[in-house]
Amino acid sequence: MKRLTLLHMHDALTLLKNSLTMPKVLYLLRTADCSGNQLLERFDDTLRSGISRVLNVDLDNDQWLQASLSIRDGGLGSGSAVLRCWHLLPFWPLLHLHMLFSSPSFQTASTHWREDPSVASTDSKWSSVAGPAQQLIAGDERHIQKEWDKLVAENHQAQLFLRAVSDLDKTWLLAAASHHSGDWLHVPPIASVGLTLSDEAVRAAVAHRLRCKACEPHTCTCGKAVDTRDLHGLSSR
Question: Do 159 and 51 touch, CB atoms closer than 8 A?
Fold first, then answer.
């Protein structure tokens, strides 16, 4: 994290979300039930403080939750070890199921599977973060991670929407999750073809996407008052 601050923000953000954060621990989360492990929280704390330092923005709890969502859901795609653990939790018993199916007697294996307490335990844990109204995915879609991710992400989006204090905040969240609004986050920062954003452009874009403080209150040259979110800058002449 300290060395990332030596890079341009666009390069650092790309490395963070594509290489140095969740991709490093994704295999472990896929192959073991890590829910409740305190090291996941330490990982997230390091990532959260690193993002704040690299991008020069302050993140409260709701802004961090939004940042950890996928880009299509209005986040930065930076990921969260704690949240990703809950997303992948249903796949742990599925791996167990695969081992049982490979046993000599399938009937015995299926019986063991139905009686295995770990299955009910992981289903219960997943339901607690996906929302009480969510039903477990069954059938052909059970092995598709995107289907499980979608339900958990929708629950987190709903929580953010409920905690939004004004219509402006709600509109902001809807705009961040709208189609193509996060396309710039998918662009590789290749300076030779003009695809690298300046540090200030990246900081402002992230602040506007996550509803962070973008500046100090001041008076614009047009005479209008500008608050800390600097939405006036999007319409000022």
Answer: no
